[in-house]
Specification:
About 70% of the residues lie in helices and about 0% in strands. It has one domain. With about 250 residues, the protein is an all-alpha fold. The relative contact order is 0.14.
Length: about 250
């Protein structure tokens, strides 16, 4: 298994996809920090003030901003095998396909952890001096902020697993990435504000992730953090099982 994980990491780092997605992650994270701090207390901003516990949790939960890019990276890892026709030699070298899938799932969970840790460090590096300059008291050891940062890291890792599962489900790379981005950027946000269906938002991946990281959202009810964690882990397990089941039963051509 260690050899397979090394092989997956070698495949990853022989391309520049991971690098540009990491840059995108850091850019989105930085943009979120800047937007949150600059809009603090502004007219029309319904988010909690940064002087409050809820506001500070929202700010540091921005460490999970890279979940979209990690999900895409997991999709690319799976679909690239079919797009570049490397899936045949991969399965010839390792006839037990489940082992290949498990290696991919572990690899991209680890990559997700790495992306999230770097994002968390960026949020801390930007937020602490900026908030101090605004005379806002904040402590990384208080108000459950360490738990928020830990939750953000775990959320991103789970999305790496989800990405591999989506890649196994939709083997066309362009289609898989497009469907995922439309869902994460557009559809979930729409569902969260439609009166008759927004109660279901709490059970969707985005709602569960927000519950885990303790993000406060006005007019949107979320699960308790532990409940959101169970729901999100459930999505990870479902997509991991889906990846294994589909890969074993489908023809590789």
């Amino acid at each position: 298994m260690i050899g397979l994980i090394r092989s997956e990491l070698r495949k990853l780092f022989t391309t520049q996809v991971w690098f540009w997605l990491l840059i995108g992650t850091l850019a989105l994270t930085a943009l979120g920090v800047v937007g949150t701090i600059l809009s603090d207390g502004a007219q029309g901003n319904d988010n909690p003030n940064l002087s409050t516990v809820a506001g500070q949790r929202n700010l540091f939960a921005g460490a999970s901003a890279g979940y979209i890019f990690v999900c895409v990276l997991g999709i690319v890892a799976m679909t690239a095998e079919y797009r570049h026709l490397t899936v045949t030699p991969t399965f010839l070298a390792t006839p037990k396909r489940n082992l290949v899938i498990i290696a991919k799932l572990i690899t991209y969970a680890i990559v997700g952890l790495g992306f999230a840790i770097v994002s968390a460090l960026l949020v801390i590096a930007m937020a602490l001096p900026w908030l101090n300059a605004k005379n806002v008291d904040v402590s990384l050891t208080a108000n459950r902020i360490p738990l928020v940062l830990l939750a953000a890291v775990i959320v991103v890792a789970i999305y790496g697993i989800v990405g591999v599962g989506l890649g196994a489900l939709i083997r066309n790379q362009i289609a898989a990435v497009s469907v995922t981005l439309v869902y994460l950027f557009i559809l979930e946000n729409i569902l969260s504000v439609i009166p008759k269906v927004k109660e279901a938002y709490k059970f969707l991946p985005g709602g569960a992730a927000n519950a885990v990281t303790q993000v406060s959202q006005n007019n949107t009810s979320l699960l308790e953090p532990w409940q959101g964690g169970l729901v999100l882990v459930g999505y990870g397990i479902v997509f991991a099982a889906l990846a294994g089941w589909l890969t074993v039963r489908r023809d590789v051509t």
